[in-house]
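Quick log. Single chain, no ligands specified.
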Amino acid sequence: MSKQVACPIWKTDAAILRGSLEGDGARLFSVRTGGEYRISRETYDDMPDLEPTQAALLTTWLVDQRRFGDNAPLVTTEVLEAAAKSRPLRFSEKRERFFRLLLSIDYIAGRKFFLQDTYDGDQADPLHPQRIFAWLGARTSKEAIAILHTIAADGYFTWANSFGELTAKGLAELEALETGGADTRQAFVAMWFDSEMQNAWRLGFAPAIRDAGYDPFRIDTLEHNGKIDDAIVAEIKKSRFLVADFTCGGIEVKGKFQPNPRGGVYYEAGLAHGLGMEVIFTCREDRMPHLHFDTRQFAHIVWKTPNDLRAQLYNRIAATVKEAPGAPGRGKGAVDPSLGPPPKPPVRFI
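-> predicted structure:
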């Protein structure tokens, strides 16, 4: 039987699922943080009472870690410090997160959800009001209710007797999100894997994507035993968006450059388009004349140097895909000296 305690983050009701706050640490369930999380004894002992803004920023981090695959994120002192420095969510992001919560529970037309903080039902309810507050990154229940009223006023759902239900407009928004890329931080980069492009990847593509809060991925970094085409399709489907760079190689024939177009890049960009994903087109300036006419009408980022590419790509991601919560911002992301994505930290269990 779980032990009831006060949530270290919100001081609301929580349950210890494993371990002890007085021992080596604990795994807790707190509906106000959106679900389960772990906290070390050292962090718990040193953790101050958090102001509502601090608690909301940390809750946003917890919700996102769960969205991206960690069912019980570990709260450490470093996490507390990083969350405190992150940018609060904008209203547009809060609204999108409300719909992403509905997507995560496979919401269907006609399902009602309670929207007041007086709900005393099962805390496991995936649409418990406090869970909604957690996904919104709200500092107080009053702020959360105001955000929900605004979303309803925009016609996305009806609100009657404290119950909400999506309208046709809300269902359409849900469908648009569902087909607009996976709910993940992975960004697929389709490009020419040649030593000539090494600095473009290391100093341009990878850091620009990390500046916007996403993890760059190249298929040549994937360990696999199956068909590479199957792996490509699977990884694109797992990505939030795709960057397609059409810079190509070629040879000189009788003093004239003969390009060797990257057929794989065209294929991967087309597949992503077919899936309804955001695709960002890029090409080095000297190779622009060799683009295929079928893709020339798209707005390409035309770059000259890796630094130029980094700045333009970050701006395009921020304007179209939007930054991921907690993104460091332009020029502040770490530059990984390797050609692959950053290594994932080891998973630690309490």
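The longest helix spans residues 52-67.
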